[in-house]
């Protein structure tokens, strides 16, 4: 027997409530995970353990985002693979030539490396573009402007990450100085990947995305004061 229109609305409403409760649960997990990370990084004896947990932090964040991503199609796969490969490839180029970011090298904290660059760096590029891209996905209609704003926000986040990353041995810069070329390089590479994000035909938006982005930014702001 087919459902009536009223029954269909009721089913939809119930599903929406379940989705909201599910999102609230994972937001709580995100908050606790970042809070525990801040506490762990602030205690010198525990810091080495939390440093090596960084790759798992990145994978957990990406996993939660993927769990709430709603539109799995070829365009999304193309974006995800492109973001990983372009971000990772730019880092390999940077480590071996100094272009486009400057002269730097990676430590061992971020895990398994290929061509002297941790594989998690590709995950990091994908994660940051997805988070910042979704922030502007519905607010800005112009693709070029949205890509510029997303890439600019990524540069701002990198500005927060860099001092912490050097102290925690994620990577180190020649002469311990962060060059201007690093931020210009981030802007250029981020802009390119953001354009792919905007042009790719998949449903943008994620109920977890903005909350995770806020926690990530707060996490590194606080770490700048405690490490």
TrEMBL record:
InterPro entries xrefs = CruF-like
Record flagged with keyword Transcription: no
Pfam family example for this protein? Caroten_synth
| Keywords, comma-separated and alphabetical | Membrane, Transmembrane, Transmembrane helix
Q: Where are the transmembrane segments?
A: 25-43, 49-69, 76-99, 111-131, 143-161, 181-197, 209-226
Q: Its domain of life?
A: Bacteria
Keyword presence, Transmembrane: yes
PANTHER family documented for this protein: SLL0814 PROTEIN
This chain belongs to the protein called Putative membrane protein
Could you tell me which species this protein originates from?
A: Aquiflexum balticum DSM 16537
């Amino acid at each position: 027997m087919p459902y009536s229109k009223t029954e269909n609305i009721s089913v939809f409403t119930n599903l929406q409530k379940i989705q909201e409760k599910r999102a609230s649960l994972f937001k709580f997990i995100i908050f606790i995970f970042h809070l525990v990370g801040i506490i762990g990084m602030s205690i010198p004896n525990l810091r080495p353990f939390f440093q090596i947990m960084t790759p798992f932090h990145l994978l957990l964040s990406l996993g939660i985002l993927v769990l709430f991503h709603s539109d799995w199609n070829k365009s999304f796969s193309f974006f995800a693979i492109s973001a990983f490969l372009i971000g990772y490839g730019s880092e390999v180029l940077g480590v071996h030539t100094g272009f486009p970011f400057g002269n730097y090298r990676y430590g061992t904290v971020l895990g398994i490396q290929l061509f002297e660059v941790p594989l998690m760096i590709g995950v990091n590029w994908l994660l940051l573009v997805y988070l910042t891209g979704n922030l502007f996905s519905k607010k800005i209609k112009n693709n070029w402007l949205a890509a510029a704003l997303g890439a600019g926000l990524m540069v701002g986040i990198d500005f927060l990450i860099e001092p912490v990353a050097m102290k925690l041995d994620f990577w180190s810069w020649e002469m311990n100085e962060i060059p201007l070329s690093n931020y210009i390089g981030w802007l250029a590479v981020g802009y390119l990947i953001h354009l792919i994000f905007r042009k790719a035909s998949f449903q943008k938006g994620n109920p977890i995305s903005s909350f995770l982005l806020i926690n990530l930014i707060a996490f590194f702001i606080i770490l700048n004061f405690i490490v």
